[in-house]
Amino acid sequence: MSNMPTQYNEVGPSWKSVRSIALMGLLIALSAVGAMVKLPSPVGTIGLDSAPGFFAALALGATGGMIVIALGHLLTAMVVGFPLTLPVHLFIALQMAMWAYVFRRVNGQFGLTAAFAAAVCLNGVVSSLTMLLLGGWGAVMAVMPFLVAASAVNVGLAAAAYRGMKGIL
Predict the structure, then answer these.
(1) Structural domains of the chain ordered from first start
(2) Where are the transmembrane segments (predicted)?
């Protein structure tokens, strides 16, 4: 996979190559494994599923990361039976895809540290507001610390893996 930008995907390498699609498949499978690793929380769907998606956003471009992270969240929610209902989990998957896109863009413009901070803030704090629809501010405040901690772990793992593999990809 070349590090040269392509005309088809201005935010990163093309995700349409056979190698990229195979890597996406491996990262989605890794998301499924991460979905089995639960971090204690009131909702039960917080796990290590998004690290491969955030990694994919850096390594494969925004589109690849968006696909991997959305499917990773849906796998996590499926493992525990969609406790927040399927429509809410589809909305959360869409949110996470947007956060992967922002993670990629911020990394390109401001660096990995700023991208880490943005992704943790968006995935931890802003995503917690989804609970406002289901349980009010009490639910938001109950979920937020767990989601911020899990976001820091997931984004940190992705950033460390990307930094370590940057020359290989």
Answers:
(1) 18-165 (1.10.1760.20)
(2) 20-39, 51-75, 81-103, 110-134, 140-162
Distance CA 43, CA 56 (A): 26
- List the beta strands (DSSP E) in 7-164: none
The neighbouring-strand residues paired with 6 are 9
| Higher pLDDT pick, 115 / 83 | 115
Q: What is the pLDDT of residues 137-148, one digit of tens each?
A: 999 999 999 999
Structure tokens at 35: 């979905």
Q: How many residues are listed for the chain in this entry?
A: 169
Q: What is the pLDDT of residues 8-53, one digit of tens each?
A: 444 445 667 888 888 999 999 999 898 888 888 777 668 888 999 9
pTM of the model: 0.86
Four-residue CA torsion sign, 117, 111, 64, 48: negative
d(CA 5, CA 41): 40
What single-letter amino acid sits at 151? S
Say how many C-beta atoms besides its own lie within 10 A of residue 122's C-beta. Answer: 20
Residues 45, 90: Cα–Cα separation, whole Å: 13
